[in-house]
Specification:
The complex is a heterodimer. Chain A is of the alpha+beta class. Helix content of chain A is about 55%, strand content about 15%. In chain A, strands 5-8-7-6 form a four-stranded antiparallel β-sheet. In chain A, strand 6 and strand 7 form a beta hairpin. In chain A, helix 2 packs across helix 3 and helix 2 packs antiparallel against helix 5. The longest helix of chain A has 25 residues. In chain A, about 45% of the residues are buried. By secondary structure, chain B is mainly alpha-helical. In chain B, helix 5 packs antiparallel against helix 6. Chain B is extended, with a radius of gyration of 21 Å. Classes of the chains: A alpha+beta, B mainly alpha. Strand 3 of chain A pairs parallel with strand 1 of chain B, so a sheet runs across the interface.
């Protein structure tokens, strides 16, 4: 389940989107006047929609689909399910159980300083005897941020955030056009996403993006979503 | 990418690839790609595929579709969800044929704006009445899961039960 935000989540067990809002008010807002609130509503939908298309329309997503349905069918039959520990269905849970995922910095990082430029080191670790790479993120000043493997959730999340940014670009062009304030309005919007991606509580979702930003030495983590999304689709 | 796999001496390399360890895979392919990009900030997916000895993008996409269709055999026909799985798997092929790699044929945004595939993706809102049908009644007929509320209720139950049946290998 991808509960990236409180507003909605995509359930990859049942392939539906759960919207944590009243139906009438959500739909009214969605079809209403074009403004920032309407855009946020649209972005919520496009974000979860992309999760669903990835789940159904990619090779990796379909393998996950088959494993999910095989598991659920066995539960109905009350039969055991043999599962690899690195299966996407359980890996997040197992990584936490084995304490391979660890957050050191709890507070939200200030996004307008050099913390944009994270460093990482990779180390070998084991999950039930299977080797797994752990990424150790730290700030340029050496503060520890977190330790985590790059999980499929962060690949799917990179695609969905990319769609939100793409949708915003359309909105910005159509609504602000050549407005002299456009630059500032865009910056304000992008800052929100930058802060979200730097938020250590949500690091599981943005690990792949930071990882690629660090390898390609991109000056801004938001530049990384487009590239990450393309690479993620190949898997 | 396979030929590079054979050349690597890291003792865990095989397992990282086999287990699809994304951190490892992304690291080695991105670092190698970065070294040949020579500072060019533009990421070109076709060049990327070519560099790793993968087929051109059109062939690559038809290979992906063939792989997806092979997925027909991943579930036994007697499985409760078999019919739904096949339906979704074929829908997935249609989605991929429409969008292509990373939306190169049609962007995901355009698909949503044109309401493509939305009839197959149910939205459930917090104030909607959920079905009061019992799990045992839902299971009596596979047609029951065509109702989104029944599906919501059933998968919630099966997901919570799944840990009892999973054996790690």
């Amino acid at each position: 389940m991808f509960s990236t935000r409180q507003m909605a989540y995509y359930d990859h067990w049942g392939q539906f989107i759960m919207i944590n809002s009243e139906k009438d008010s959500f739909q009214k807002l969605l079809s209403g006047k074009r403004n920032i609130e309407q855009l946020e509503c649209e972005n919520t939908l496009i974000h979860e929609y992309r999760h669903c298309l990835d789940n159904l329309g990619t090779n990796f997503g379909q393998k996950l689909l088959a494993e999910t349905y095989r598991t659920m069918s066995n539960v109905i039959m009350k039969k055991k399910v043999e599962m690899h520990v690195v299966s996407p269905l359980i890996i997040s849970e197992k990584v936490r159980e084995k304490s391979l995922f660890e957050i050191f910095v709890k507070e939200e990082l200030n996004s307008d300083n050099e913390n944009y430029f994270w460093k990482f080191d990779l180390t070998d670790n084991y999950l039930n005897n299977y080797p797994i790479q752990i990424t150790k993120f730290s700030s340029v000043r050496g503060y520890k941020i977190c330790n985590t493997p790059v999980l499929f959730t962060s690949l799917f999340e990179a695609n969905s955030i990319y769609e939100e940014l793409h949708n915003y670009n359309h909105f910005s062009l159509s609504e602000y056009g050549n407005n002299s304030d456009k630059k500032f309005l865009d910056l304000d919007f992008y800052m929100k996403y930058a802060k979200q991606s730097l938020n250590s509580e949500m690091i599981e979702y943005s690990t792949a993006t930071h990882f690629i930003a660090a390898i390609f030495e991109l000056p801004h983590v938001l530049n990384s979503y487009d590239i990450t999304s393309q690479i993620c689709t190949i898997f | 990418m396979r030929y590079r796999l054979d050349r690597n001496n890291n003792k865990s390399h095989f397992w990282y690839f086999r287990n699809r360890d994304f951190g490892y895979i992304i690291k080695i392919i991105c670092e190698e790609y970065k070294s040949i990009q020579k500072g060019n900030p533009i990421f070109d997916i076709e060049h990327f595929l070519q560099h790793f000895g993968l087929p051109d993008i059109n062939t690559f996409e038809s290979d992906v579709i063939n792989d997806m269709l092979q997925g027909r055999d991943l579930l036994l026909t007697k499985c409760y969800f078999y019919e739904r799985y096949i339906e979704l798997m074929l829908l997935g092929v249609e989605i991929f044929e429409t969008i292509g790699i990373s939306g190169r044929k049609k962007s995901v945004r355009d698909c949503l704006m044109e309401n493509l595939f939305t009839e197959y993706i149910p939205l459930i809102f917090q104030d909607e009445e959920l079905s009061i049908i019992k799990i045992t009644d839902i299971l009596e007929d596979t047609n029951n899961i065509k109702n989104k509320y029944n599906m919501y209720k059933l998968v919630g139950f099966l997901e919570s039960e799944s840990n009892k049946y999973i054996t790690l290998i």
